[in-house]
Amino acid sequence: INAEYGGREKGQQLVLFFGCRHEAGDYLFREEWGEVSNLVVFTAFSRDQDHKVYVQHRLVEQGGRIWGLLQQGAVFCVAGNSKNMPFQVKDALIKICMVHGKLTKTDSESYVEQLIRNKLYQTETW
């Protein structure tokens, strides 16, 4: 994400959920992302407080926004550690579908699988 990108279409809103261990040492693109006028960044720094806060927690907190963006055809991308995070983020997305989309658990799981098939949910994990 950079100032030149600015969304696929002019004025398109970009939403980024960024997570790392520590804000001071890991939030390397704060200034660059701050220059992208249509980018909203939600952060989760897991070690900067007594209890761990992860991206999946921030996703659930912003569930209404996420649901609305998905209904508008947003592309949902997940990148990072491949151990537990991708599964936890997927579970958070299913929860968002249940709460904000008023779908059953089965329908929410099917909805997320459809996003994957349509390449609207993509992961790059390592």
Helix content: 40-55%
Helix-strand sequence: EHHEHHEHHE
Biggest sheet strand order reads: 1-2
| Biggest sheet record | 2 strands, parallel
Distance between the termini: 20 Å
Structure summary, number of beta strands:
4
The overall pLDDT, averaged over residues, is 89
**Roughly how many Å is the radius of gyration?**
15 Å
Structure description:
With 126 residues, the chain is α/β, with parallel strands linked by helices. The strands form two sheets. A two-stranded parallel sheet has the order 1-2. A two-stranded parallel sheet has the order 3-4. The mean pLDDT is 89. The protein is 43% helix and 19% strand. Helix 4 (63-71) crosses helix 5. The radius of gyration is 15 Å and the shape is globular.
Layout of helices and strands, plus pairs?
Layout: E1 14-20, H1 23-26, H2 30-34, E2 39-45, H3 55-61, H4 63-71, E3 76-80, H5 85-100, H6 105-117, E4 121-125
List the defining traits of the structure above.
single chain; 126 residues; alpha/beta; two-stranded parallel sheet; 4 strands
Short description:
This protein is of the alpha/beta class and about 130 residues long.
